[in-house]
Structure formats: structure tokens, C-alpha cells
Amino acid sequence: MRALVTTACMAAATCMVAAHAGPPYPIVSDRIVGAYSVSIWTDPDTTDDGTAGGQFWVVVETAAGADVPAATRASVSIRRLTSGAIPQQAAAEPVRGDPGNQFAALLMDHEGSYAVAVTIAGPLGGASVEAQVEATYDLRPAPYMLAWYLLPFVVAGLLWGRLLVRRRRVR
Description:
4-stranded antiparallel β-sheet, 2 helices, alpha+beta, 26% helix, 171 residues, Immunoglobulin-like
């Protein structure tokens, strides 16, 4: 009975783990461009199903470290670094109404290197920042694979338990 309860708890836990695709990381940190200090964070996941897995957060401050004006907007453009690649662009939207923290998601349909360009427009003028990022598929196994990987250990535990019960009966 305990083994059944433990297995059910582990199966329920895999559903919670599947919701997270990995932490974002910075590709540009506090670069001063024009009147702005710009940081770009990304979680560049490649997808086959057409969902926008390439996520970009643009953190903007004034070069002096103050908050940016509310009319400041960023746009993110990506282009695969292979011949004939068509660039994609998306307007970044403020996160919870904060123009200093903006988010955009773009489709990254192939693994490999991408050129990233962020353009900022606002009352303090314009600015542009370029970087590169390596897009990969999420390398974690699917949640059902956890059960498959745990199966040998569960079987070994059940056999050991059976052996202990037999030894107890013999005594």
C-alpha cells in the first residue's frame, strides 16, 4: 500500500515539475547605449509546434540609473545566423505596467545561433543593442519518462519487500 501511495505522489509531482522550462539568463548586462542602460535576459527554447518559445525580457533604465519614462518601448528582432533566414520581430510589452521591464516572445523553430537586436524608442531618444544567443530544445525528459526511469527501482524495492516478508514467515 505504501508503494502505491509513494508512486501516486511521485506521479503527481511530475505534473508540477513539467510546468517549468528553465531559468532565463542574461545575454547583455547593463550596456550603456545612448541615454539608456539596457540588459537583455532570455530563455531561448526551440519548439516544433509553432509556439513562441524564444522569450526575451528587456530591462531598461536611464544611463543615470533612474526609471525610464512611461512612453519608452522596446522591440525585439531575431534572425537565424544561416543563409536565407527571415528575421522575426515583436513589440515588447511592459511587465505589470512597468516600462523598465518589458517582455517579448518569438518563434525559434530551429536549434542554433540567432542574432538578437533590441531597439528602444522613447522620450529620451532611441537606442539599439545587438547580441547572439544559442537556441536549443528543452533537454529535460518528458514527465512520463520519470516513471519509466523509476520502474527498475520500484521493482527492486517490491522484490526486496517480498523477500523480507518470506523470511519473516519462515522464522
